[in-house]
Amino acid sequence: MTKVIDIIQGKSAPFASFELVPPLKGSDINKLYRAIEPLMEFAPPFINITFHRDEIEYRQKADGRFEKVILTKRPGSVAIAAAIMKRFPVEVVPHLICGGHTRHQLENDLIDLNFLDIQNVMALRGDAIPGEKYFTGEPDGHSYSCDLVQQIHRMNKGVYLDDSLTDAVHTNFCIGVAAYPEKHYEAPNLEMDIENLKRKVEAGADYIVTQMFFDNRKFFRFVGKCREAGIQVPIIPGLKPISTRKHIEMLPRAFGIDLPQELMQEIRKCKDDREIYQTGIEWCTAQSRELLAHGAPAIHYYTMGKADNVREILKRAF
Prior knowledge:
8-stranded parallel β-barrel, single chain, two-stranded antiparallel ribbon, alpha/beta, 40% helix
């Protein structure tokens, strides 16, 4: 198995990687396979698989009382990662999140991944539970992703939570982390957000993948500030093509990002979602070409399980 950092450093030309979501509970995994198959013609060296924490709903019972129900909507991330690697010639990067997990649960997931010879993980804090304003970690969990990175890095050195273990196996995980060219929505400013990113790198992160952005100037400024702060690991830009009018409202609200005025002017000219879909392809293609021309080692595409527009962008840009 190949580590993502070795892929990045060993490639003589830039490449594309992709991020997909696991199927909903009760769905057929073949739906995920069908989303991956069209992308394989571009020989992605790795694919990220997101993880979604449990959600909480309050359902009214027949007697009028409400009961708390915990819902796992997209289970099976570890098994899905193994299934994809068995089916396709590609490395898989499962996401691990602090939200909803204790340190012991995370350690067990890492042990499972190690047994499956999956050596790449993306360490994330995760979002707050829907309906809650602020993120809250588990009582025996992590509140910050840098602490999760540190836990993984310690396992790579053979240090587990049970300090009575002797001669424990050293895991061999390559650790990716997230970054935000326009800053994380909770950070006071970009400079402090970059300080937090540096802590993740110092804790053991091997490379960085950014949140989606639609203005390359912000990415170039962000990379410059990272280098000035002493962050030297590879930084992979993350892109997502806009495909519907709903994205114009949803993406800024969900991810704390701006849509450039030039893009909005083009979208306003569109009569329907079909034209917006094409505009999204053209904008993301132009972004991709400029990023590649400026030396990006790779581009990470957020597909959300829909590959047609990303395939068209790759045909035009790579």
